[in-house]
Amino acid sequence: MLNTDVVNIEKAAAIFKLLGDRTRLTMMKILENNDCCVCEFVEIFQASQPSISQHLRKLRDIGLVEEERRGQWIFYSMNKENEFFPFVQQVLSQIPNQDDKLKQLEENGSRISCC
Amino acid sequence: MLNTDVVNIEKAAAIFKLLGDRTRLTMMKILENNDCCVCEFVEIFQASQPSISQHLRKLRDIGLVEEERRGQWIFYSMNKENEFFPFVQQVLSQIPNQDDKLKQLEENGSRISCC
DNA sequence: TTAGTATATAACTATTTACTTATATAATCA
DNA sequence: TGATTATATAAGTAAATAGTTATATACTAA
């Protein structure tokens, strides 16, 4: 239980605040294993595009994710260079995998709607 | 990194929401190693008594802490019987110890104000 | 039993948050 | 080029949150 990846408590609280939203927490779990574009999240969460973009913006502002444009789409991925990445990774490892949500998109063909 | 203490994502989000407040996160770190009464937290955080009580209430409602009356005082402690205790413990282990805040009280004599 | 201390809770207020609608930007494709 | 698609962002709104003040409850000690 000894841990060397000790992290500033103020920053930790800010990260937990972001992870304290079910949509964002699920996003982070999906991004653990997949790059995703905005429109996929829109499908997965059945939410509006601005709502999804705003969640992603918060995750990006604090450094947890990064974006990369690929043609028409912008893909989001975990920011593995972030100094808090090991902390976040350890936290997320305790939460069940959410890749089934992405699989469902693939199965009903929604994923190819963009990617 | 394999983890068997996998926890419902909805509940995990609710717990992170509570830990996403600096006061409550620090409280939880202190309670990791110490039982504490309300008046001590009032001193530590230089906050009002109702504000502290309301934070503790939220932590209790979700099952993270429990209370025990000892005479005039009510002591709070980690609820080790809670099904999410291993999860919370693992999460907290990544955050620096906050016992110095309690030590400061002892040093300037404030802790004995009640306990 | 009365006064004092510790705590909880209710009611109110200010701030923050998540979402909506509307619009702007940027890339693609006909 | 103009239309379409993907995304970001701004502005507004409703709900949630954290704090305040006021008051109630419970224990202790004189």
Walkthrough of the structure:
Chains A, B: GO terms for molecular function: DNA binding; DNA-binding transcription factor activity. Chains A, B: Keywords: DNA-binding, Transcription, Transcription regulation. The structure is a homodimer of 115-residue chains. Chain A has six helices and three strands, in the order ααβααββαα. The first copy, chain A, is an alpha+beta fold. Chain A has one domain (9-100): Orthogonal Bundle (Arc Repressor Mutant, subunit A). A three-stranded antiparallel β-sheet of chain A has the order 1-3-2. In chain A, helix 3 (38-45) packs across helix 4 (49-61). The radius of gyration of chain A is 14 Å and the shape is globular. The A-B interface holds A 1, 3, 5-10, 12-22, 25-26, 29, 87, 89-91, 93-96, 98 and B 1, 3, 5-10, 12-22, 25-26, 29, 87, 89-91, 93-96, 98. The structure holds a DNA duplex (30 and 30 nucleotides).
